[in-house]
Write a structure and sequence with these properties.
Largest sheet: 3 strands, parallel
Structural class: mainly alpha
Shape: elongated
Strand content: 5-15%
Oligomer: single chain
Distance between the termini: 43 Å
Strand order of the largest sheet: 1-2-3
């Protein structure tokens, strides 16, 4: 029977600063890899730190502008990192799509 080690990355995001969240997330993934982890799981909507969607329309548009796709640099960075570390990374992010919730 094989054993799979999973890291639940319990970290606080740096608000909606995606560059800082990316750097912090990478550091945690590297630390998990050094501990022999097979899969690292991120907290919800890691790219924006689970910043709630505001009710005011102009603020909502600013928040929606932070949504990203699976092809954006934030996601592809972690895809490449997973390959480098030979580790699964379950990344979470606010996904861009057409339409409203």
């Amino acid at each position: 029977m094989s054993v799979i080690k999973v890291a639940l990355l319990q970290m606080t995001a740096c608000g909606s600063d995606q560059d800082t969240n990316q750097s912090k997330g990478e550091a945690f993934c590297r630390q998990a890899s050094e501990m022999g982890v097979d899969i690292a799981l991120f907290p919800e909507m890691w790219n924006i730190g689970y910043t709630p969607c505001p009710l005011q329309q102009n603020a909502r548009e600013i928040g929606q502008a932070q949504a990203i796709s699976q092809h954006d640099g934030f996601v592809t960075h972690f895809r490449a990192l997973a390959k480098e570390l030979k580790m699964g990374i379950a990344l979470t992010y606010l996904e861009r799509w057409n339409g409203s919730p």
